[in-house]
Design goal:
Length: 374
């Protein structure tokens, strides 16, 4: 096959491209320029999209002996990922920009261009597995990225290849060293790639500005003022700007965010328990919408936050009734469904969380309580 290898400049994408070459594919490497003002150097393991990353990707392609190009996707990335991220926080949501980047950039804009140029598939260094069109968790549970890939449609999965998902990360680094790839020991990027400082609140504050509001307890008593709901997320405990813990000495957590009034609700940890999740934009990785309730394992964060559940497709969205409560479930996050077999590694589908319920597993769709109404 003729495949396009997305090369970020890191070790995972370099080894993924190398394995595609080994498999006999005709491979062309491409680095996506996603920043309008790329920095000259990375800051440790923070950020990506720097000139250093582009150079590392080019050198890896040279070692592999494959053609290499840099494609400018900065405008599309700003519109579909950065602007979406800012708007979601301004609306009191907690988005996952990596998930949106995979959906909108790497497996939509990039894949569409690849197909238009005659490529059969896009190769990436994501830690996930594809078996007969079925998306599964990676062998390396600590690096598994199936959660942020669960937004891909069945059609997009037919054009995707994840060559490193069957190998633990230490072995990937060892393989890179054996191949003479200079990125073998390059630090992994972390945090949000377009916020290399790691200070998300400052980044959002510069974009959104001051939008004052009140922090109130579960009785509606005002505890403090704040400068914008974008500085908070469900389940947050630190950095709330409160004078101290609750009268009983217990810590307070963010339990609800109302972007219209600017009110941030706080309460005890038990107020974070969620039994029902309502989600929009349901995506079924098989391409077929289930005709009735299905047993599943629901995951609400990229690493952790899983519970056995029953999910049902409703009006293009999802209702997920949990058999065990989850905490810290916020609007804007994704709920990803896995098949509840002994392995629990097959992705069934996903949706974008729009509301939650705390009244028990028998809660119906009409009784869902949106976060903004808490």
């Amino acid at each position: 096959m003729r495949v396009l290898a997305a090369m970020s400049g890191g070790v995972d994408s370099a080894v993924a491209a190398a394995r595609a070459v080994d498999a006999g594919h005709e491979v062309v490497g491409v680095h996506l320029a996603l920043s309008e003002t790329p920095g000259t150097l990375r800051t440790g393991s923070r950020g990506c999209c720097s000139k250093e990353d582009a150079g590392d990707a080019r050198r890896a392609a040279d070692v592999l002996g494959i053609p290499f190009y840099v494609w400018d996707f900065a405008d599309r990335f700003k519109e579909d990922v950065i602007d979406d991220f800012v708007a979601a926080y301004a609306a009191g949501e907690t988005p996952n920009p990596c998930l949106r980047c995979n959906e909108k950039i790497k497996f939509s804009a990039l894949a569409d261009r690849a197909v238009a140029l005659g490529f059969d598939a896009v190769v990436t260094g994501h830690y996930a597995r594809l078996e007969n069109g079925v998306l599964r968790r990676a062998v390396d549970a600590d690096k598994d990225q199936s959660y942020v890939l669960a937004v891909l449609t069945a059609e997009q999965l037919t054009r995707a290849m994840f060559p490193v998902g069957d190998t633990p990360k230490p072995q990937i680094r060892a393989e890179a060293a054996e191949r003479g790839l200079a990125v073998a020991n390059k630090p992994d990027s972390h945090d949000i790639c377009f916020i290399p400082s790691g200070d998300t609140r400052a980044f959002l504050g510069a974009k959104i500005g001051i939008r004052p509001g009140a922090i109130v307890d579960s009785d509606g008593y005002k505890l403090a003022d704040h400068e914008g709901v974008h500085g908070f997320t469900i389940g947050q405990r630190k950095g709330l700007g409160l004078p101290g813990p609750a009268p009983d000495g217990r810590p307070r957590y963010v339990t609800g965010i109302d972007p219209d009034s600017g009110t941030v609700h706080v309460g005890p940890v038990e107020d974070l328990n969620v039994w029902t999740v309502h989600a929009d934009r349901a995506i079924w990785t098989s391409g077929a919408t289930p005709s009735g309730p299905i047993d599943c394992i629901a995951q609400v964060r990229a690493h952790g936050g899983t519970a056995p559940a029953v999910a049902e497709a409703v009006d293009g969205g999802l209702i997920v009734r949990l058999r065990e409560p989850l905490t810290g479930v916020a609007r804007g996050q994704a709920v990803v469904l896995y098949r509840p077999d002994p392995l629990g590694d097959e992705v069934i589908g996903s949706g974008t969380i729009s509301g939650t319920g705390r009244e028990g597993a028998d809660l119906t769709a009409g009784e869902l309580v949106p976060d903004s109404a808490r």
